[in-house]
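Standup notes, structure subgroup. Blocker cleared on the iron/sulfur cluster input:
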Amino acid sequence: MPVKASDIQKLLPEGGKKNCKECGLATCFAFAMKLANTGIALEKCPYLVPESKAELEEMLMAPIKQVVLGQGSRQVVLGEEEVIYRHQKTFLHPPAFAIQLTDEEGETVWAEKIAKVSWQFERLAKVSRIDLVVLRSSSSSGDKYLELVKWVMAATDAGLILAASDAETLLAAYEVSKSRDPLVCVTAENVEAVAPRLDPNAAVCARATSLESLPGLVEKLKDAGLERLVIDPGSLKLLDLVRDQTLIRRAALQHKFRAFGYPTAFFAVDATPDLSLQVLLAAAAVAKYAGIIVVEDISEDLFQVLATLRQDIYTDPRVPPTVESKVYTFNNADQEAVVLVTTDFALTYYAVAGEAENSKQPAYLLCQDTGGLCILAAWSTGKLVPETIAEMVNKEGMAEKVKLKQLIIPGLVARIKGDLEEELPDWEITVGPKEAKDLPGFLHELKKRREGAA
Ligand code: SF4
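Run returned:
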């Protein structure tokens, strides 16, 4: 749960009433507010007694640690979540999708799977990808596993997850791929042999076989000096997945149970050999807090479904989704095209854009910058009014782009027609339909009327 400024203030000098301003802020409460938003260092207050400082450090410590995997443009940030329910604030870091390759599959399958790591699915100006590659040793041959690790390292720059039960095989792969900062999967069986031989800053996935045995495994890793942890309670069924992930999130946030204060992993690949069921489980894991989700394989359409779900859950509910404010063209818009007007609120834009495309009529679509407001909200706040529309029409040079000079405004703001005619005297202002779904029929009628008049 986010820390309250009033709770911080109580631990500041003189109960938060000293107000000496030496921290650069006007009052102790202002300092507490900054601390609650992690915008200032504790050291800025010179009068903090050690006990209060220690208590504040504990209070301000992120309940779920941040773990960064991969490098460069392939970097994945996990953890740091602060809420149980998205509507309380927002979920911060979307789960990473991982695809698994095994050393028994061979180069043909490896190449097919690695090609999928290059997929890029763009939606709402964000690109979704398969983020990580799990390298699984299933052959019990150390050489075969190393061959897989080296092959994948040469084939992709995506982040790597090493999964081998044999300690020596795992450590050999870690040495080979250390430059790529892989996430090393460690279990209760190999933790004693592996943990002491990893670099202290190595990223490790603690893979337990049950929620109950997870804290013990985490403690062993921490005792070995390892802190960049991802935790996996080993859930293999849907109900266990939901229960385990929920309990981990609640324990970390509500009870500050440190052993669970890490991003989590869910290996759908271990739950069932059925690829469709793996995707269903992965969808549940997206909704229920998983940090890394591993599948054996996935088709492009199902990946897009998962990526859409992930994006929907991990958008900030406090910020409306937007598209770029600019002029969009449809159906080879030329001098004969009409000009439509809408806002940059993504849901409005996609509804209008889809129907503009369906109409098969050449059209320009002026997408006004309204900060992500729908038509009526934009109108009522002065962001979609005759002045702003005329300004965009002129700025974009629309008069030079079209012969017809026919501007179609949304039916919901029909009342601005008169004022807009005054702002744009050379244009014919037409009131369009209220609903985007009626746009194709409306444009066809308009075209028929034009042709009849000619
Ligand atoms: S320096 Fe410390 S005591 Fe002084 S106003 Fe800032 S927080 Fe309060």
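Discussed briefly. Residues 66-313 form a domain with the TIM Barrel fold (CATH 3.20.20.20).
Next: hand off to the docking folks.
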